[in-house]
Amino acid sequence: MPVEGHDGVVFPATFAAGDNFPGGYNIDGDKDGKNVCLIDSVGSQANRIEPLFATEPYAGLVPQIVIKAGEKDVSLLEAGHRAGDAIVRCSSLQQELRDAFKELLKGNCEPLAKIAPTSLVFGVWDSRDTQAKRPRLVASTIRAFQVRRLTRSAQYVPAVEYIDHKLLEDTDDKKLRDAYAVRGFIHVPASGSHGGVVADGGIRRDATLSLSALRMLVAGAEAERTRKLQRYILGLALVAFTAPQRGYLRQGCNLVADPDRPREFVVVHSDGKREPAILVHDDAVAFAKAAAQAFGVGESRTVEFDREKALADVRGDSASAESKPLKKVRK
C-alpha cells in the first residue's frame, strides 16, 4: 500500500502513446469503476531486480561482465535486453554471444549460462540476430485495483514581474513568449496533468517462479550437466525471487507492506493444488552458492564497446546481422 496509507495517492508508471493507446497510465476497464492499473511492469520489475547480482553477497554467483563505452562502464546486468542488448552485441563478446545463442537454438543453454546466466532467469530474446529466445523463470508485476484517476494542476510564478518592471521587453511574438516561459521569466500554468490514482481495491505484487520453464533448460545430451545447469539457474532464480524489494519505485510511488494483507507464498502444482510454503532468503543464497560452485561460474571480464561493430550493425552488414531486417522491439 502507499506509505501514506490505504487511501493514499500512488503514481503509476506512464507510457508513451502508440498502437491505439493514448499514452499516460495503463488502466484496463472502466476508468472510475472496475479496473486494473499497471503500477510496475514485468520488464521494469526485472530491471530492478537483476542488478542485485552485481552487489555483495551475490556478485560471486554470476560472471561480472562490464562493457566500457567511452567514459562509461555498463554492467551486463544493467543492460535492458540483457545478452541481446546492443551494447554487448557490439563489443568484443559479439561472436562468443552469437555462438552461445546458436547453441541455445540447438537446445544447449550451457554456453549462455557461462556468460549471462541471469538472461536465463529473467528471459532473453536475440531479436536482432539469431532470434533465439528463452522465457522468464521469474516474473513479477505490481498492479492496483479499482482505481480512481486524479489530476493535478500547478502555477509557476516568477520571482519578479520581469516585463512589468521593464527588465524584459513585452512582446506579442509567440516564439519569444514561449522562450520566456521555457526559461522561467513569465507565469506558466500547468493544468489537468496526471495526478496519480487512489486504489480502492488495493495494490498487489504478484511474483512467479516457473519450474516448468526451468525444466526446459538443458545442457546438451548429458543428464549430469543438465542437472548442474538447472540447479545453478534455480539457485539464481530463488535468490531473485526471495530478495527483499525496495518499495520506492518513483516519485509519488513509495510502497510498503500492508499489515492487513500478509504475504502469501504457495507452491502451485500442475493440477492446481496449492500448498503453503516457506523459503528464507538466506537459505536461497546458501543453495545458490553451492549450485554455482558445482556448475562453475563463468569468467568475469571487462570488454570494450566497438564503434565499428556498431556502425556495421546499423548498416546490416556485420557478422551478427545475417541480413535480417531490423525489428521494432518493445521491452
Name a few traits of the molecule.
331 residues, 2 domains, 4-stranded antiparallel sheet, 3-stranded antiparallel sheet, 10 helices, globular
Overall average residue pLDDT? 91
Count the domains: 2
Shape designation: globular
Low-pLDDT regions: 320-331
**DSSP strand count:** 18
Taking the sheet with the most strands, its summary is: 4 strands, antiparallel
Helicity range of the residues?
25-40%
Q: Which structural class is indicated by helix and strand composition? A: alpha+beta
**Estimated share of beta-strand residues:** 15-25%
What does this structure look like?
The chain is of the alpha+beta class. It has 2 domains: about 40-145 and about 200-315, no CATH class; about 150-195, no CATH class. It has 10 helices and 18 strands. The strands form 7 sheets. It has a 4-stranded antiparallel sheet. It is globular. The model is unreliable at about 320-330 (pLDDT under 50).
